[in-house]
Design goal:
2 domains, 15 helices, flat, 3 strands, DNA polymerase, domain 1, mainly alpha, about 300 residues, about 55% helix, hpI Integrase, Chain A
Length: about 300
């Protein structure tokens, strides 16, 4: 296919995504999906047929790609056909697979304490404390500005995060103290920027915050945990440990910014403290037997 055709189609798709206010990360994912489909076809996607779509989905399955990634790629391709090309007949040929329900990975309170204690720098300790102590996503941590820290109300404001939602999370005295220590030690090249608009964690490029990839590397460099867990496990651990301490699940839902309670309820499956304290039906069956046996012993003794 010609370069002009590709450029025109991609530009039209970008315009469609912009008009629907899709975020940059989603747009990059959709463009990548369509580029992969075009590479498979070896021609422009707007010439695809039903058989081409069937073969492409079969190809993804044969490569051993995970269900999550397969669904992500086909979501981008479906946007192309349903929105940009207005080919609803082809969009209907795209199917998605049910993704496996996995238990969130968490660390224990002792592991969290050790993780923060061995942090190699104040910056690492502050950022990881925000992930675990406030339940923030990596993207939310790196996008924090001075104006988001409200020490008077003891909250941190998270603006336009996942799902274009705002929310508040608690600002504990310990977290506030760490942030104040970091602000004194922080080095940035943004002295001309108003204080309230300065990034808490400036990146290497002037005017830009630190990237989530840099934060992930910081986590793995400082982990000191035997388990192989991702950075996002700190957010899972935040919710699980609150639940084990008796915090109302709807409060946890608000702190995490979940739309559905079902999403938050999955942490009940990994709250080991709560699970271990549940009395088994086997124990309940044994209790009457134990009581009756003790009563017979008492009668014989009398």
């Amino acid at each position: 296919m010609s370069t002009e055709t590709v450029s025109a189609l991609r530009q039209r798709m970008i315009e469609d995504m912009n008009s629907r206010k899709l975020d940059l990360h989603t747009q990059r994912g959709h463009i990548y999906s369509c580029k992969r489909f075009a590479a498979f076809l070896k021609r422009s996607p707007d010439t695809a047929t039903r058989e081409d779509l069937r073969r492409f989905q079969l190809h993804l399955a044969e490569t051993g790609m995970s269900i999550c990634n397969r669904n992500r790629i086909m979501t981008g391709v479906r946007f192309l056909f349903r929105v940009t090309l207005r080919r609803l007949d082809l969009a209907a040929e795209i199917y998605h697979l049910r993704e496996p329900q996995k238990i969130p990975q968490v660390i224990s309170p002792d592991e969290a304490r050790r993780l923060l204690a061995i942090a190699s720098s104040l910056k690492a300790r502050v950022m990881l404390s925000l992930c675990y102590g406030c339940g923030l996503r990596a993207g939310e941590v790196v996008r924090l500005k001075v104006k988001h820290i409200d020490s008077a109300q003891k909250i941190i404001r998270i603006e336009q995060s996942k799902g274009r939602k705002d929310r508040n999370v608690m600002l504990s005295p310990e977290m506030l103290d760490l942030l104040q220590q970091w602000w004194k030690a922080r080095v940035g090249f943004d002295r001309t920027t108003p204080v309230q608009e300065r990034w808490l964690f400036p990146g290497r490029r002037p005017g830009k915050p630190m990237t989530t990839r840099q934060l992930s590397r910081l986590f793995h460099a400082n982990a000191g945990i035997k388990k192989s867990v991702p950075l996002h496990a700190l957010r899972h651990s935040f919710a699980t440990h609150l639940l084990e301490r008796g915090t109302d699940i709807r409060v946890i839902q608000a702190l995490l910014g979940h739309n559905k309670l079902d999403t938050t309820a999955r942490y009940t499956r990994v709250a080991t403290g709560m699970i271990a304290s549940i009395e088994s039906p086997l124990d309940l069956l044994a209790k009457p037997y134990k009581k009756s046996r003790k009563r017979r012993r008492d009668q014989l003794a009398a």
